[in-house]
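Same chain as my last thread, 277 residues:
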Amino acid sequence: MDDRGSFTAETMALQRAFESYRPPGLRRFDDPYATAFLRPWLRVLAEAARLPGVRRVATGLYDVVAGPGPRVSGIVRTKVIDDALAEFVGGETQCVLLGAGYDTRAHRLSALAGNTVFEVDHPATQARKRAVLGEGRVTYVPVDFEHDDLVGRLTESGFDTGKPAVFVWEGVTNYLTADAVDTTLAAVRELGGDVIFTYVDVRALHEPSPFPEARRWVRAVARSGEPWTFGLRPTETRQFLADRGFSLEKDLSTFDAGGGSQLYRIAIARRARATHQ
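reply #2:
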């Protein structure tokens, strides 16, 4: 990513902007900040979507370019995680957004209004985000997941290991190495947190894939300079998490959650509690 903001984070902001301009009774959520993160030509496209007829053309054009799956999967995963956070967060629960990108939950979700929120991401993406949203609502923690000490960075930034915590890891694992995924989960476990995360079915990364949309999707993210490098087989996710100290509570595809693709998945896991004889 170097010194640039993430393009995939920007496309996710565009997807949220499209959804936010749907009628109040139909949209799954409202993100009033999403458009501010877009480069000029994408902002024009998003703003045009305020008009119902144009919105259908704009989202249709996006789906033609990106292929079936990405936009609706992005919208559904946002809604599922929003709802899960509302159930997780309470009292002194800390929320940590890992690889936050242009996530604006700290600013738009009432469930997080009174809670401490940490946003962990590459400093280039954070710099652009701070320029839009400012400093006050969240604590920004610059981290490179492949190289930096997440536990150290968070505790230095005020994370309290004596309080409950939920970690949101949305749209990140598929861009990491297996070692980085392991290291991050170990850090979440050490910090005492539960975790809500997304992942891709590993079969999407190899041909022939059982998912018709996989080839186009995988090639598109590779062309953007942010290729998919990690996935899990859903039938093995429960054991994968158990081996790392977590108990899987829910695991479903965005398709099953409300639309999108079978290859893109959301998992909710609790930190396994020690048992006493």
